[in-house]
Specification:
Elements (H helix, E strand, L loop, with lengths): L16 H6 L7 E2 L5 H11 L3 E6 L2 E7 H9 L10 H4 L7 E2 L4 H11 L3 E6 L2 E7 H30 L1
Parallel strand pairs: 1-2, 4-5
Antiparallel strand pairs: 2-3, 5-6
Length: 161
């Protein structure tokens, strides 16, 4: 039987990013700035992801999304085979530290109009959290709340009968 929410870290807004990442696969998919956009798209397709971290000598230098590829390559009528990732990647990357919370992630994503946040710990990217990851966490949290309310309601009705 689950215990009711009693501590601040059990409240969704205060849930740590580290806790959210614990339920997510740990793989971090990257490309280099010199890789072709086609290579990047193949990595995204192979792993069913929408964003890659662009790394150069273990340093974050950018991110590349499917949307970047579609808008900056396909619509610009460039060749995915010959266009390097460096030409279209986003260089000013918004990141978040692993110690921040669910609410911090949502706030940053909304403020910057982004769907993915690279998570940094001690200066190194350790994961990427997506709006879908946060939505999944919210669904799980709300299911738990509903279950607790149902259990409480049943307790009240059976104790008065």
């Amino acid at each position: 039987m689950d215990t009711p929410i009693r501590r601040p870290e059990e409240i969704l807004a205060y849930r740590s990013l580290r806790r959210i990442l614990a339920s997510k696969p740990t793989a971090l998919w990257t490309v280099s700035p010199a890789d072709s956009v086609l290579t990047a798209l193949q990595v995204m397709a192979e792993h069913d992801i929408g964003l890659l971290v662009v790394m150069e000598r273990d340093k974050l230098v950018g991110v590349l999304s499917e949307r970047d590829c579609a808008r900056r390559v396909l619509l610009a009528k460039k060749s995915a085979e010959s266009t390097p990732v460096a030409d279209i990647m986003v260089r000013n990357v918004v990141t978040i530290d692993a110690e921040h919370t669910f609410a911090d992630c949502l706030r940053l994503m909304h403020q910057h109009g982004i769907r993915h946040l690279p998570v940094v710990e001690h200066g190194q990217v350790i994961a990427v959290v997506s709006i879908r990851d946060l939505l999944s966490e919210a669904v799980r949290h709300n299911a738990k709340i509903i279950e607790e309310l149902e259990r409480e309601r049943l307790t009240i009705f059976t104790s008065t009968a």
